[in-house]
Input
Amino acid sequence: MSRALKQAVIVAAGLGRRLKPHTDDRPKALIEINGTSMIRNSIDIMLGGGIEEIIVVVGYKKEMMEEHLRDYPVQFAHNPFYAITNNMASLWFAAPLLKGGFLYAHSDLVYDPSLMNSVVNSQYENALLVEEKRCGEEEMKVIANDGLLVESSKLLDPNYCVGEWTGIARFSHKFSLTLMTRIEELLEAGHLQEYDTFALTQLAQQGESIHIIGFNDQPWMEIDTVEDLQAARELFGDSAP
Output
């Protein structure tokens, strides 16, 4: 049985270019769906599931994010290179604040609370939450073997994939040390624009066990585009402009 998670990391540093004009004046995670910002919704779900301390990695308009979350039990890490890096680099900037195993989530998600709880309460110490389905081109596809990650990338052939990674995961203390070391090596080698799955795939293919927690019937969405936002507001009952 995995150890109970008490700490979480949310990466929220990006510019959200594909969500313009909604992100002209705010970070993407501050956009509201059903009356609550995406990041507050995630934090509320985490706190309700037993997480006690949350690290939010900020970058674009970080002062606005810090003000928005000033009443929450949150620590902030800063990715000063947010304009030229991706979420793999943002995750690395959380490393000095980590105390052990942690829950991990992207900030641009809206989802049923049961999905987060399934990861927090999972028997696996290292796991990705994956919707089992036929994937499209833009989705972060996952290849697995016997319930373990083999590869994750947007570029994979959907015919060989079990589904889409949601951007929610959990990692043990031991694995997180290995992961942060690998990310640092990749950044030093110039892989600034890679997704976090780039590092996870390398570790999986070198023998690290990263389990797949599959689901196919609970609602969730990753908000990348204006069309995604509109669809999420329809799915979750919100007609805000």
Remarks:
- The longest strand covers residues 163-171.
